[in-house]
Amino acid sequence: FFSEGKCSMCDIPLMDFSPLDTETGKLMEGTNEKNMTNLLMLNNRKLSKASVHQNSLEVFDVVKMNKFMEAASSGDVRTLQEILDSDAGAAAHYKDLNGSTALHYACRYVNKDVVRLLLKYNADPNAEDRENWRPLHYASKYFQKDLSRDFAENFTENEVEKSKSETRDIVNQLLISKADINAVDVFGCSALHYAAMRGNSAAAETLLHYGAQPDLKDKNSITPFMTSCTYGAIEVFDILFPESSKIVEDRRGNSVLHIAAQHGHIQILRCLLSWILNGKGEEDRFSLLHRINHEGKTALQLAADADHSEAVEELMDKYKEGQHSEDENWMLHKAASKGYKDICVILIEKAGMEVMLENDDGRIPLHLAAANNHAEIVEYLLSIRADSIEAKDNQGFTPLLLAASNNGLDTLKVLLDRKAKFTISDRMGRNMIYLASKYNSMSVLQYILEHMEDKRISFNQGRYRPSSPRDDVTGMNLKERMINKTDMNQETAMHCLCGNGYLELVRLLFKHGASINCINEDEENPLHLAAESGRTNVIVQLLEWENKLCVAKDDEGRTPLHKAARNGHEDATIALINGGSDLRSKNVYDETALDCAIKAGELGTTKVLMERGANPSDDEERGMGNGLHLAVKEGHDDIVQYLIEQGMEVSSRDELNQTPLDIAIEEGHKEIARMLVNHPDWKKLMEPTDEYSLPEKTKKPRDTPMRRLIHNFPDVASIVFDKCVT
């Protein structure tokens, strides 16, 4: 009864209100006399929201009100009468926390005698709860007293008729008492909408008799008639049919035919189709059959999308030969994709749809069924066109390759049993083993590898040829050749697995003869790809099998450690170092793994490498710049800070005789410059790099670090001035 610190009936503030215990009626702990005065003694206050014949409420008893609402719900007329008599009928206007009155509950639970009693005490038939539901909404939606909807089919005829009679009586009483027959809730739904939703024919009939609007639209532009089509309420549909407009659309452009087809309500669909086809000369009526909604779909397409085969069949019977729209011709593709076999059969055998029709991806229905592992549909489609088994889409995928890519084991078995070519590759040169590996199709890969020599997979289906000199198959049997076959980038399935981190499949392929020393066109082995992607578990396994992999270099001289460090994979970097990687190994750009980490701004791997012995000053021996110069040049503040903390000399010079400060100014890294001039050795950074003779000094100003600071970063220069003064 209370919300936001006020009584919902009179808006009187309840201040520090602590409620009553609703079980005992006693004060809860913490309630004081002042609170109870506000709660129980609301003397001589006018009720602000309830029109009652009593102008004051002497005692507001929560326990009594709970009892009153329960009595209205259960049909306890005697208790209701006692409470109404005790407060001169004021209880008829009380609202609970949901804004519901006793009349709402009486209508909700179909208690006609309670409804009659409450109306006698002037209960408001237009009272609204929080959802703007009025008693009439409840009476129209809930109409089977004491009967579970789960067992509706077991209702006796007398029970159903009794329920209808009580509903008529309640709706009549409310309307006689001036209930607004077309009032809507927060969703824009009237009582007639809810009668249609729940199949309440008694309420619908009575509401229509009293003038309810059958074409009133809710916020989604749905009428009560359309609602009956949605929920399959055939009795209400029959009542509303003569009174309602059939040429109407909801917010999504769905007609009544769209709605009935989408929900598969056959009786309603047949009635609408009969009405459409009997409307000779009425183009609006006949156009409903082919009308599209805002998604561009007809009723037939919606029925097919929802797997309502009977509805599809009904609609197909009304189509003339060749009447299908271009979009409807793709229904077979969608049905095959979703696994709707009955729909596929109807579309092929009754509508004559073409099983070899290609979509924009070059895929026929068989491709889509295979990609989604609908083995039963694959078998059916192959029974129509056996030669479609080797059909390729735009990417060169056959149904078998799609099944392998999507872990479609059931479909793969069907296709292999029907002698699909298992050595075939797509346009990228990837065979079924490669694709199963790439897409982590574990069950498919296990089946293929364990049954390569089984009679179900014959060796005589095609002759294997290596695709390039790198595809080294010397001494390999067919299974091993297929496992180690390369794609257009000269990568094998093992490359792909290691890059993706599929450890179980890595072990499976290795067990069946996969090479881990193979290299792609960039001369990367599987460990390179695992390192680049940070697949630590795979790295550990590969090094356990072949420790020398960690020193292999790609075509740019990068070891796996270079790749892990550059990409910030700390755990992978540790695993590679523990596996024997050379910290001083350099790529063709004269960079160590530490250089790569610093250059990429990866503080984590920079720390890992230095903690394990990598030296950022190695190049200084050859007069080259060190790690600090590199970090400054790239503008990585955090790495610069870390290297300084590790004791690197801030005044060191690179091969161009530049200090880190010179580089920071040149590259425009103000915060790094600020960091450097605040270093204890800042004075060494202010020494000029030029070697002007005395006469030259008189001709033009020297290009000193201080001059460049003043020109580029005056606020940083001021720090130096302050240091000079002090």
From TrEMBL:
ANK repeats lie at residues 98-130, 187-219, 252-274, 361-387, 395-427, 489-521, 556-588, 628-655. It comes from the Eukaryota. SUPFAM superfamilies: Ankyrin repeat. Keywords: ANK repeat, Repeat. The keyword Repeat applies. This is Ankyrin repeat-containing protein. It comes from Pristionchus fissidentatus.
